[in-house]
Design goal:
The chain is α/β, with parallel strands linked by helices. It folds into three domains: 180 residues, FAD/NAD(P)-binding domain, CATH 3.50.50; 112 residues, D-Amino Acid Oxidase, Chain A, domain 2, CATH 3.30.9; 48 residues, no CATH class. The protein is 37% helix and 25% strand. It has twelve helices and 18 strands. Strands 1, 2, 8, 9, 10, 11, 17 and 18 form an eight-stranded mixed beta sheet that branches. A seven-stranded mixed beta sheet has the order 6-5-13-14-15-12-16, sandwiched between helices. Helix 10 packs antiparallel against helix 12. The longest helix is centred in the C-terminal third of the chain and has 32 residues. It is globular, with a radius of gyration of 22 Å.
Length: 394
């Protein structure tokens, strides 16, 4: 792709910093609507990204076709195991519960879709400083100064753009370690059909196996920051599953599972994706929120008629409606799942299968978490299972 140089005399309608799922989506929609968009990234694409690459159906439905075509494997089944308690649950659906993609190809396809819509891409272009006034935003980069009417900071969990633009933090960054593990064909085949989530290996977190076309993505995460000995946990996990790597490549990173302190738009700068802190606290999946926040940011700019305050108001409102409310419920559930082991054990022993079914419906987008949790019919069913005798129990 042709690289772009800054042109101060031809300001952009929108400058997007970071061409991951959040930034590329915003760039694609804004450019498709006829705005002049610069999409800046410090990397050159295709670039790798530490990620399990698990896509939930909700996000698949909204992807440009070329990005959806990077899915290597679709899992129609998932299992959730509590290793120490010996509990195991299994869900199966007619649609993929999780679809697997490699982020280098997936993100590259999203960038190409943005460029095809008219966004101008500037790679190897890290933003180093941000200045904004009533009229617009200026970004200083090694390729020159870019000026635009609005900017979207979509530079990921460790990007600096939000801090440079004066946003407060307050996100909760949890550690995760991910390994691309090449294994012998029989091992790949035995893990090939299902997404697997294992609890009670990392004390406050989970481990996963996501099958890709020719290898397994295996990872561990802790739901709280701090020293989680993830390297050791990963080794333990591989031993436990009898996975003998032929080749293994490990990468650690962080996932922001609690948003920044509001506001999420300041003057003419909006935050999106991990830069805002939109990964789901329960599952740690962040791609769907990144895509959705990119869409909401683009619509706010398009509908705001160039007025910074109106754009900010529309963005805050859109985020609340589309993402923030649901993410807040997820955080409450995550607290029980990861930090209340006795309550968790009680609930999953009594009605684990039902809980897994509800979560799956939410991942598929068939239900939204707040509605699922506030649905009286669900509560009646749940109460019935809680009061029923556990087979073999006392
Ligand atoms: C180990 C691990 C496993 C995960 N597994 C999953 C999963 O299976 N499914 C899921 O949904 N989510 C998963 N996530 C979370 C997911 O990766 C993120 O939530 C998602 O990538 C966020 O997208 P984004 O567009 O906000 O940011 P990113 O994808 O991080 O993109 C940010 C972009 O900004 C660029 N950038 C950074 N700084 C600058 C700068 N100064 N100037 C210009 N550009 C800059 C970067 O090069 C990058 O391209 C996982 C995360 C980790 C760490």
């Amino acid at each position: 792709m042709e690289n772009l140089a800054a042109s101060a005399d031809a300001p952009y309608d929108a400058l997007i910093v970071g061409a991951g799922p959040a930034g590329s989506t915003a760039g694609r929609l804004l450019a498709a609507a006829g705005l002049k968009v610069a999409l800046l990234d410090k990397a050159r694409f295709p670039r790798s990204k530490t990620c399990g690459g698990g896509l939930i159906l909700r996000s698949l439905a909204r992807l440009p076709p070329a990005a959806a075509a990077t899915v290597e494997r679709a899992c129609f089944e998932a299992e959730m195991n509590f290793l120490a308690s010996g509990l195991s649950f299994h869900v199966r659906r007619k649609q993929p519960v999780v679809a697997m993609a490699m982020r280098d190809r997936f993100d590259h396809a999203l960038v190409q879709a943005a460029v095809a819509s008219g966004a101008q891409l500037c790679e190897e272009c890290p933003v180093e400083s941000v200045v904004q006034n009533a009229e617009g935003v200026q970004l200083r980069t090694p390729r020159g100064v870019f000026s635009g009417r609005f900017a979207i900071a979509a530079d990921g969990a460790l990007g600096r753009m939000a801090a440079l633009a004066g946003f407060l933090d307050g996100r909760l960054l949890i550690p995760a370690l991910e390994a691309e593990v090449h294994v012998a064909a029989p091992i790949l085949a035995s893990f090939g059909q299902r997404a697997r989530f294992d609890f009670e290996l990392v004390p406050d977190g989970y481990a996963w196996v996501f099958p890709k076309a020719d290898h397994l993505s295996i990872g561990v995460l802790a739901a709280a920051p701090g020293e989680a000995r993830l390297q050791q946990r990963l080794e333990e996990y591989l031993r436990r599953l009898d996975i003998v790597p032929l080749r293994i490549e490990k990468h650690g990173y962080v996932i922001p599972v609690r948003p920044r302190r509001p506001p999420y738009a300041k003057g003419r700068v909006l935050l999106a994706g991990d830069a805002l802190g939109l990964a789901d606290a329960l599952t740690a999946e962040g791609i769907s929120s990144a895509l959705r926040s990119g869409e909401v940011a683009a619509h706010a700019i398009l509908d705001g008629g160039g007025a910074a305050r109106r754009v900010a108001r529309l963005y805050q409102r859109g985020l609340r409606r589309e993402l923030l409310r649901e993410l807040a419920w997820s955080r409450r559930l995550a607290h029980i799942l990861y930090f209340k082991p006795r309550l968790r054990a009680f609930l999953f022993r009594r009605c684990g299968q039902q809980l897994c079914e509800v979560l799956t419906d939410c991942l598929l987008g068939e239900e939204r978490l707040p509605q699922a949790l506030l649905n009286p019919r669900r509560w009646i069913k749940l109460l019935a299972s809680l009061t029923a005798r556990v087979p073999g129990g006392s």
